[in-house]
Write a structure and sequence with these properties.
This protein is α/β, with parallel strands linked by helices. It contains 18 helices and 17 strands. α3 links the parallel β6 and β7. α7 packs across α8.
Amino acid sequence: MSTSLRVIILKPGKYDADGYVQRFRRGFMPNSTLSYLASLTPREFEGADCEVTTIDEYVHADLDYLDLLQRDPSRRTLLAFAGVQSHQFQRALDLAAFARSRGVESVVIGGPHPMTCDTSMLHDRGVSFALSEAEIVWPAILRDALEGELQPVYGEEARWGTRLDPPPLIPPTKRDLKRYAIPMLGVYPARGCPYTCNFCSVIKIAGRQVRSQPVATTIASLKAAKAAGVRSILFTSDNLNKYAEVRQLLEAMIDEKIELPFFCQVDTQIARQEDLIELMGRAGCFQIFVGVESFSRSVLLAAHKFQNHPDTYGRIIDLCRKSRISTHFSNIIGFPSDTREDVLEHLRRLRELDPDVASFYILTPIPGTDQYEEFLNAGLISVDNLDRLDGTLPTWRHPHFSDDELMDLLVHCYSEFSNTRDLVRRVLRHVFSRWDYRTGVDIYTVLGYALLQRNPVRRRVHPMNGGSGRVLLDRVADYAELRRSTYGYDLVPLPRSLALSAHDEALNRTVKLHA
């Protein structure tokens, strides 16, 4: 066994529609998994020293980091790809092949795609796959990396653990924080979503049982983040209002005077939790993200999004404004029954409610979801490239729209919602409110997000692609021969979804909703 291990944790980018690796001079939001996995890695493991390096490929404006992806004759190297989604999977495979060709002994890919999709066609090609949460398999991966050879697959028996008890987060370095528009850190107080939306992969990745880490761990992470220069927190848990200990956490943040502005996701049931919204505001919440998706109750029911009632959307905005919390409403256009008139009516009602921020996505069959399997079986998916399955482009044959018509509607929604007059009015609403430590970040996000939308939308490019100051460096063509020789594919075939194990099914049956 080696006495030293170099651990490189890398969040891959994706290939855009022009074939370039998508990268930016400044990122919007950091990847939470990088810091989480780095913090799970002990600096000494079974008598061996561990050196940890994290890389978020989206925010590297040069290729210097590729020099790390080679054999180090003085120690073993483990290259771990973290949080790999389906649209990033081929980029991860290409970098894995690149590293293996340069002598890196151990390479593993984890995240949503290998957790929810069949990767068996790629097994025994020099790359391993983690099919579960890191807590379950990370020690075994580290141990095998020290030996110099990984198993082909980790975590087949269980996708999720029954409890979370990680160490406090180790914040990113100041150099890494500077790669983002706001020095921000992602924190996971809890994991899991109790709902059954058929288009969403979260319940396949994190399960329906909401599991949480100790409140003391989250508080310790926040204190360390603040001391390290972090200026804003992203609570990456889905539906923070379904986290049983959320009030304990918020009260502890108030008592400890954390005073870090935070952004979080909640479900529409928060319309019934006025006291929680008030507590969130006092604890530092400056903005909530809500997946409203549609104003049609019949569309929501068909998508199994039973928890959404459009008549409550306005109340959410009103309650948040009372606590000086801005609202970011996420919308999906192109549900199977949608017509042009439906989308325009959705936009009209959205503008009437006037949330502070809105984002729009084209309905996309995400690999691993129930909807993906349904569309795949029906032959509706019109692309054969995983890179495109990211919610920004048409990818299936819609009964009422051509691809160009869907893109026209996407551009129209963004342009109309963030027109100059409405944007100025929204910003002034915040400028003339009572200021506190949250206000600057809030105004920056409301204004900055809208302004950063404009140029991409004019070019018919989705604005939620991850950052500002696009950088064009390497392309998919640079890795095409290596991909073909390593894996035998020009494009990895569209996968089938992985079934849950008996353990996972049993954990899902323990779901309890906390209203």
